[in-house]
Design a protein that fits this description.
By secondary structure, the chain is α+β, with helices and mostly antiparallel strands. The protein has two domains: 3-46 and 147-223 and 323-367, FAD/NAD(P)-binding domain (3-Layer(bba) Sandwich), CATH 3.50.50.60; 88-139 and 225-315, 2-Layer Sandwich (D-Amino Acid Oxidase, Chain A, domain 2), CATH 3.30.9.10. The chain contains nine helices and 20 strands. The protein has helices spanning 12-23, 60-79, 97-109, 120-126, 146-159, 206-211, 286-293, 331-334, 349-367; strands spanning 3-8, 28-31, 48-49, 83-84, 88-92, 116-119, 134-138, 142-144, 163-165, 169-176, 179-186, 189-200, 225-234, 243-245, 256-259, 265-268, 272-274, 305-315, 327-329, 339-343. Strands 1, 2, 9, 10, 11, 12, 19 and 20 form an eight-stranded mixed beta sheet that branches. Strands 13, 15, 16, 17 and 18 form a five-stranded antiparallel beta sheet that branches.
Length: 368
């Protein structure tokens, strides 16, 4: 056997999984088709550390977000990674009060016990520019420097003896009696490699990777969808001192206000269903942003928003369908020893990355 484990994809989840493997004594490489870590979904993340409020009781999203949040804060403190536990307020208008109460109950079911109900005047004390009927104060939400986090995960991996192979395409895999035979390609050069463990952490392309695994049951390959989220930056000084979220919308959390560690405010994301990867931001979408933001910040000036950036979420269901859970497939699911597939890892995948890595590591250890 050439190596113990190969992880396909050097986003934040792939790096976290590979780091866990390497620190447990496995030889591991990460195969990344781009020139840098986190080039696609991870680098376009809002950098919010979520609390675990929105997800179905007992779901992987709920469990791994709550655990991952605490792992994230502890890791940032240990490594000195720039972050801020700034808190957020979720605001509701008159017609949304019942839904806000349901959201609070959902959070409690998920183990998020620090929420505080605020009436309109209390929200104004917290955020004087915000107008709403009521809100939920969530002190455990925060922000983190995404690139610094990925740099530290990558560094941990290398210090433990692992490596990321950049500019390298995963071409195919075939099951063998004692593991996997892989074909990789970098430029015009082909490399054949054998490993015991294969982890598909390819984010937007994870479903495509399944097509390249010769022995994977074709009947299990799900359809994949792309949900693009556009962000607009606010000109001038921030009106907020905490993150401000409206009530969640279908396929997303609504056009909310976040800021980075330098205090620069951006609004988003919206949800734009697309068929091909496209990271450009259509300035014309600002019209809907103004309408959505003024529901809770009526003083938003005209011409105050500039196109910022876009990210794309890997979805396992399309428009109009209820959100699905993370799909973390292990040999117990598909009967292929040593293969783990991480599918539909959208929000809160970033917050959950260290918890996902723990789960994958524990699964591999139990089946060894």
């Amino acid at each position: 056997m050439d190596i113990d484990a190969v992880v396909v994809g050097a986003g934040v989840v792939g790096l976290a999984v590979a780091r866990t493997f390497a620190q447990s004594g496995l030889s591991v490489i990460v195969v990344e088709r781009h020139r840098r870590v986190g080039e696609e979904t991870s680098s376009r993340n809002s950098g919010v550390i979520h609390s675990g409020i929105y997800y179905a009781r007992g779901s992987l999203k709920a469990q791994l977000c709550v655990l991952g949040r605490e792992r994230m804060y502890a890791y940032c403190a240990e490594k000195g990674i720039a972050h801020l536990r700034c808190g957020k307020v979720i605001v509701a208008q008159d017609s949304e009060l019942a839904a806000l109460g349901s959201l609070r109950e959902s959070a409690r079911n998920n183990g998020v016990m620090d929420l505080e109900w605020l009436d309109a005047s209390q929200v104004r004390e917290l955020e004087p520019e915000v107008r709403c009927a009521a809100g939920l104060w969530c002190p455990s939400t925060g922000i983190v420097d995404v690139h610094e986090l990925m740099t530290d995960l990558h560094g941990d991996l290398e210090r433990a003896g692992g490596n990321v192979v950049f500019d390298t395409q995963f071409e195919s895999a075939r099951a063998q009696a004692d593991g996997w035979s892989l074909t990789l390609r970098s430029g015009g050069d082909r490399t054949d490699l054998r490993c015991r463990l294969l982890v598909n952490a390819c984010g937007l392309h994870a479903v495509d990777v399944l097509q390249r695994i010769a022995d994977y049951p074709r009947s299990r390959i799900p359809q994949r969808f792309f949900a693009k989220g556009n962000y607009f930056a606010l000109r001038g000084r921030s009106p907020f001192t905490h993150l401000v979220y409206p009530m969640p919308a279908q396929a997303g959390l609504g056009v909310h206000a976040t800021f980075d560690l330098a205090g620069r405010v951006r609004f988003g994301p919206d949800v734009e269903w697309i068929d091909t990867l496209d990271y450009s931001v259509d300035a014309g979408r600002a019209r809907n942003f103004y309408d959505a933001i003024r529901m809770y910040w009526p003083a938003l000036p005209d011409k105050a928003l500039d196109p910022a950036y876009a990210g794309i979420r890997p979805k396992l269901v399309g428009p109009g369908k209820p959100a699905t859970d993370f799909l973390i497939e292990t040999p117990r699911d598909h009967s292929l020893p040593g293969l783990v597939n991480l599918l539909g890892i959208e929000s809160p995948g970033f917050t959950s990355c260290l918890a996902i890595a723990e789960m994958v590591g524990a699964t591999v250890a139990a089946e060894a």
